[in-house]
Amino acid sequence: xxxxxxxxxxxxxxxxxxxxxxxxxxxxxxxxxxxxxxxxxxxxxxxxxxxxxxxxxxxxxxxxxxxxxxxxxxxxxxxxxxxxxxxxxxxxxxxxxxxxxxxxxxxxxxxxxxxxxxxxxxxxxxxxxxxxxxxxxxxxxxxxxxxxxxxxxxxxxxxxxxxxxxxxxxxxxxxxxxxxxxxxxxxxxxxxxxxxxxxxxxxxxxxxxxxxxxxxxxxxxxxxxxxxxxxxxxxxxxxxxxxxxxxxxxxxxxxxxxxxxxxxxxxxxxxxxxxxxxxxxxxxxxxxxxxxxxxxxxxxxxxxxxxxxxxxxxxxxxxxxxxxxxxxxxxxxxxxxxxxxxxxxxxxxxxxxxxxxxxxxxxxxxxxxxxxxxxxxx
Length: 378
Hints:
Layout: E1 20-24, H1 28-38, E2 44-48, H2 51-58, E3 65-69, H3 77-87, E4 92-97, H4 102-112, E5 116-119, H5 124-161, H6 166-199, H7 208-222, H8 227-238, H9 249-252, H10 260-267, H11 269-277, H12 286-292, H13 313-328, H14 339-348, H15 356-367
Parallel strand pairs: 1-2, 1-3, 3-4, 4-5
Helix pairs in contact: 3-4, 5-6, 7-8, 7-13, 7-15, 8-12, 8-13, 11-12, 12-13, 13-14
């Protein structure tokens, strides 16, 4: 179990193919535990007893993940990770702390833009799982940067081609369109990979996002949305709960009533998902849809309290699909209420919580058996 601090380790021999993970803590026994826990992992670990040393080493190495204790002399983990975020934005950041106060958690999320908040003490497997998820996230960030660079190069090539003969311009334009199609498919793959990363932390809701995407897509088609807009709805549904990657799995799956702090932490997930996605240039408003999927027509939703037409239509569609899927599926903390109650919920709150046109289309899908439960919902 990790429950103390750590000291700086002896120098490591860098292997370019292995990701580097930095641990920063001011107590020696945590370092010893970290080195023991991670010695057989596929990444290499460097440990530091203060954040200044870690920052100096970050300047010399490409580091995939930084894990910092929250309470350290001279500089808090949040302050340290804020510096890392500004100077090395591709490095994934995590907090390892025994401080469960909501203020500290939200400060770390909002200021340091952390990927995960790990509570001390935590089990060896939980810690290794969190680090592996962070390494995967770094790979996704690196891939997105590669795609962004590729798009930039393609745009520059297109500008140059404008000065050439019309025939060459037409030929090159066809190639660019083909590349754009490939990039769009790659972005879809990244979305699916990110969704899978979230769901691996929560086996009880595995498939929830995919099913929400399917139902939302069916509703969008029923409402007559364009193919491109419908595809955007599906992809946003597949990734709508991305922000829950910041919420400890034990809170997501805990039976019984949550505390006020735990509820507040869960309510942060649309904002966190937006913060992760807002700088990725999707062909659809994915980040805004994720941000708004818990808003309600009467303004009683979260996180921004939007109402009516101020909520994107795509977000209104996902809000209905999310409720129907959640109420139709089993959770560890409650049995499934069932599809009948789910449809009653959206029907009775049509125009209040949920968009009336979206509800009408959803009810029609089930009434006309255009979408079935077998093999889709638990």
